[in-house]
Write a structure and sequence with these properties.
Blueprint (H helix, E strand, L loop, with lengths): L1 E5 L3 E10 L7 H11 L3 E12 L1 H16 L3 E5 L3 H9 L7 E3 L17
Parallel strand pairs: 2-3, 3-4, 4-5
Antiparallel strand pairs: 1-2
Helix pairs in contact: 1-2
Protein name: Anti-anti-sigma factor
InterPro entries: STAS_dom (IPR002645), STAS_dom_sf (IPR036513)
Pfam families: STAS
Length: about 120
């Protein structure tokens, strides 16, 4: 699942689940929407990404490249080492700013509500 949020200067993509070949059908529409918004900063929140393959990396690279051509920047936040490695192997890590200060919120809190 990919959600798009905007502010006057920023577009934020929040990605949850797998970012891979199985999800590729939605990539062109999302890319067109992001490019059409013409914001200078694209923030890609990957806190809830469970897996990314080279198809997902190519999608992120195309978004970053489109932004760079317009003079913008793309920030990855919540990206784990495995995902950064995929982008590095693709030779594209330099297209991104990596937000190493961001801390992802816990995905769920478990409580035990049973009474003994």
């Amino acid at each position: 699942m990919i959600e798009i949020a905007t502010s006057p200067a920023t577009t934020t993509l929040v990605i949850a689940g797998d970012l891979d070949l199985a999800e590729r059908d939605q990539f062109p529409e999302i890319a067109a929407r992001v490019v059409g918004l013409r914001r200078q900063l694209l923030v890609i929140d990957m806190c809830r990404v469970t897996f990314m393959d080279s198809t997902g990396a190519a999608f992120l690279i195309s978004l970053a490249d489109s932004g760079r051509k317009r003079g913008g920047a793309t920030v990855l936040r919540g990206c784990d080492d495995r995902d950064l490695f995929v982008l590095e192997v693709c030779g594209a890590l330099e297209l991104f700013r990596v937000d190493s200060e961001h801390r992802c919120a816990p995905t769920s809190t478990r409580t035990d509500s049973s009474a003994d």
